[in-house]
Design a protein that fits this description.
The chain is mainly alpha-helical. About 4% of the residues have low confidence.
Length: 286
């Protein structure tokens, strides 16, 4: 038996090496980079990045409920080019240059959302971002769609986990949108340093006002909330009590007392991965 096992080792090692090589080369081939490199002398701080083009696109293609007209956007080549130009503008930021925290947060939130929209437009028509998130071999939009910023490439996962979450502003989780209905609503205006506090607070209240993401039964003291609050629990506080105290000011008025209660039971609602797409009008099908 021992001799038989030893005879299989070379085949096992060869298979693992082949799998590694195939996965690595496949992943490299599937990567897609947006934005562009700029000469170092042209790089600027986040304070100097203009988000006007992104604001214009959001106002045109995103409704007040945060749903996106991907169909119309896909048809308009000029507006697709405007999105490309905006991504190139983001590329001019040098993260190493000093900037205000609101400007940096606004830039990276906008970057996450704009790159996600760019990725969905590439795949559209589609019904869910999860159809483009291969786990082992093939294109994964969260890992293989890269934005150049300051001559370094960042994936969506990099932006979320290595940049935004490191900035210790938990309300980013109510601002970055992975093109799904279960996400917070996509704000139909660009985030800016000047308006950031108001925008984050407003979107946090909108998030918890949605019964698909927040339900509270006062009689049983059971709180049903989005699994986003489970996935990123530590970003909101080390304990459940700390998290509820932080978030309760954004809860609906009749649930804000939850932050002072110590016997609240939490349950997590299902997450809806369907695309955050506006329903087409009858005229769109003509």
């Amino acid at each position: 038996m021992l001799k038989w096992k030893r005879s299989l080792r070379p085949l096992l090692y060869l298979s693992l090496a082949a799998l590694y090589f195939f996965t690595a080369t496949s992943s490299a081939a599937d990567r897609w980079t947006v934005g562009q490199k700029h000469p170092s002398a042209e790089l600027v701080s986040a304070d100097q990045i203009d988000h006007t083009a992104w604001d214009r696109l959001l106002r045109k293609y995103v409704d007040k409920q945060g749903m996106v007209n991907y169909r119309g956007w896909k048809r308009d080549l000029q507006d697709q080019q405007l999105l490309d130009l905006y991504l190139q503008t983001l590329s001019r930021c040098n993260p190493g240059v000093r900037a205000t925290k609101p400007a940096k947060l606004a830039l990276w939130i906008n970057a996450y959302n704009a790159v996600t929209v760019k990725g969905i437009l590439r795949e559209y028509p589609t019904t869910s971002i999860r159809k483009h998130t291969a786990k082992l071999i093939g294109y994964n939009i969260w890992e293989d769609l890269l934005l150049v910023v300051g001559n370094k490439a960042y994936s969506l996962e990099d932006i979320e986990h290595k940049v935004l979450r490191k900035m210790e502003e938990p309300r980013i989780h109510f601002a970055i949108v992975c093109a799904s209905i279960g996400c917070p609503p996509l704000l139909n205006e660009a985030y800016t340093a000047k308006k950031l506090e108001e925008q984050l607070a407003s979107n946090s209240r909108r998030f918890f006002a949605d019964s698909e993401k927040f339900q509270y039964d006062a009689s049983s003291r059971v709180l049903r909330i989005s699994p986003i609050l489970d996935w990123f629990a530590k970003d909101f506080g080390e304990t459940q009590q700390m998290r509820l105290q932080l978030l309760s000011p954004y809860f609906p008025e009749d649930a804000q007392q939850v932050g002072q209660l110590r016997d609240v039971r939490i349950r997590y609602l299902p997450y809806d991965w369907d695309l955050n797409e506006q329903k087409p009008k009858a005229s769109d099908n003509r």
